[in-house]
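INFO worker-7 received task bundle
INFO bundle size: 2
INFO processing item 0
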Amino acid sequence: MSQQGNFWGGFLLGTVVGGVVGGIVGTLAASRLSPVEPTDAEKSFSKLEAKPDKSSKKRALKPPTEQSIEVARRGLEDKIAQLNDAIDDVRQQLGAVNGTVREEEPEQNLIQES
């Protein structure tokens, strides 16, 4: 029993001493390194943080018009149709790879126009 108590005491003491020694060595090693110059990307990013873009604020405050909503809706419908076509193509390719060729199913529109 006494050996088990000595083990945990030594383990905790070693952890604390190792942490302190590691912290001191890490601090000394970091202080001896030369300071790193920021890259061009970091410099430009800090400039963007300092000066917010005024034109983006104006766009965000502008209410959408009926025409812009309709254009966005049509664009989304086109993208959904493209995605559906791509999904069908992949499904057919995977079916051919797995050896189960499916017959062409009638195309079902996921979006119903009103």
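INFO item 0 finished
INFO processing item 1
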Amino acid sequence: MRTLLCSLLALSLLMLCAGCGGSARHTVITNEDGSMLGLVITPEPQALGIDRGDDFYLDWPAGYAPPREFTVRLRQVDTDATTEAVLTNLHTLSTGHYRLSPASTLPAGAFLLLTITSNREAVRAMYLTDDDAFGVTREAKPGAEGQEEHTVRTR
């Protein structure tokens, strides 16, 4: 009996942890009748060097409403244009205010594509995550090839 109880407890814990991994896509039903107009995304789209622990926020300010239904995805984009899903959790803070949290730390120096789509519209934002060596100033060695300054003249 004790072994059966321990087995059931272990299985319950495993099932609970399996549900914590996030999802590749989230669909939100808002019962509003708005659009993507007014959507504010944080961090600002096209930001470089975002923190690898950052969450993403989707906000429709006062006077704007989200679409009745929309889908949110975060993908990592490689230099050869292949994409891989980033597992995330979506939290509804209130109607028109959402937080997208990566299920694990984002990879260093990676391009990310955040896509929010409704049946009529799509909004996309690209990001570059902070690289471990990002921000480290590299100094030129004396006698190294290259030039400090270049002058370009056009006609």
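INFO item 1 finished
INFO post-check item 1: The chain is about 10% helix and 35% strand.
INFO post-check item 1: The longest helix spans residues 2-18.
INFO worker-7 idle
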